[in-house]
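To close the section, here is one more complete example, presented without commentary so you can practise reading it yourself. The ligand is zinc ion.
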Amino acid sequence: MEQDPGFIAAVEEAKKGLAEGGVPIGAALVSKDGKILGRGHNMRVQKGSAVLHAEMAALEDSGRLPGSAYEGATMYTTLSPCDMCTGACILYNVKRVVIGENKNFVGGEEYLLSRGREVVVLDNEECKEFMGAFIKEKPELWNEDIAV
Ligand SMILES: [Zn+2]
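Output:
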C-alpha cells in the first residue's frame, strides 16, 4: 500500500507543504477504480486558512462531485486525520482511510471504525520522521493546527 499512487501523491504533497514553510501533511482522494480525484496539502499557513488541512485540500481539489463519485473511495493521508477531516470523510462516504502514521497524532480513527469505515495505518518511517521533526521545530504552529 506504500507503493499505491495515492499514498505516493500524499507524501509528495506533504513535502511540498514543508518546502512552502507550511505544515507537512499531504493527502490524496482516490476513486474505487484507482483514479486520483484530488490531492493537496495543509495550507493553513500558506492561505491563512482555518480549514485547509490536507484532507480538506484534497476534497476541495476534487471539486464538486456527485455522491456516487465517492463510493468506494480511499483517502490517503500522511497523518491520522483530525476530527474535522474525519467528519468530512464520513460525510462524503469515503470507504477507506489509509494513514501514513499515527505516532505523532491520533485523530478520529475510532470514529471512522464505528461508522463502518476501513482504517489502515502504514506506520511509514518517512512520514513519522518529517512530522516528528516539524513538531519539534515548530510546536506553536503544530498546536495551532489541532487547536491546542
Ligand atoms: Zn484535519
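Once you have examined the C-alpha cells, check your reading against these statements. The chain has one domain: 5-143. The mean pLDDT is 96.
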